[in-house]
Specification:
alpha+beta, 2 helices, about 15% helix, globular
Length: about 180
């Protein structure tokens, strides 16, 4: 009898918790109606250039939610080429990461030191607390990383000179250019 009462109480608690999620956390995947069972096969992913806070060459595919939104949760995949590097940085929210394919070298701290990185194979899970400073190098075949976190997705570089947005802003205001026009 006690086990039935426990299971009933647990089910009610879970149901209440799920119904309290913000609407954006319940946003369906592209092409699916709200409340439906969801899945995306690899060929259904819609890859697009990564946000400008990441170095050029990366792509993202949003699986659920809105990484650029102001609340709720999201899931997305990040695909990078071989040798891709992201300088020491942090994020304002905690992240749950799964290395789907490829490999990466992962390091912690304000100074990038390739000798102090850990080689991580496909299948690795990583939890990053908010504000945790880290850096990564892609292995020989690049990698695909699944990111699950609270919106908004943002990145803050330890050294602002490493921020691709800063480099683009400087290029946009170089002598002989007008804002929004890149120097060639």
């Amino acid at each position: 009898m006690r086990s039935i009462a426990f299971v009933t109480a647990a089910a009610l608690t879970l149901s209440a918790a799920l119904s309290a999620l913000p609407a954006s956390a319940q946003t369906p995947a592209p092409g699916q109606a709200a409340g439906e069972h969801e899945f995306l096969t690899p060929d259904q992913l819609e890859w697009q250039p990564a946000p400008p806070g990441l170095p050029p060459g990366a792509e993202i595919a949003v699986l659920r939610g809105d990484p650029g939104g102001t609340d709720g949760t999201f899931a997305m995949r990040l695909r990078v080429p071989a040798g891709y590097y992201v300088a020491p940085h942090s994020h304002p929210t905690a992240e749950n990461l799964t290395l789907v394919s490829g490999s990466m070298r992962y390091g912690m701290g304000d100074e990038a030191d390739e000798a102090q990185t850990t080689e991580l194979p496909a299948g690795t899970y990583i939890f990053l607390p908010e504000g945790h400073t880290h850096y990564v190098w892609a292995g020989d075949e690049g990698f695909v990383l699944e990111i699950q976190a609270a919106a908004p997705f943002d990145i803050t570089y330890v050294d602002p000179a490493n921020d691709p947005r800063e480099a683009q802003a400087q290029a946009d205001t170089s002598p002989g250019t007008t804002p929004g026009q890149s120097a060639q």
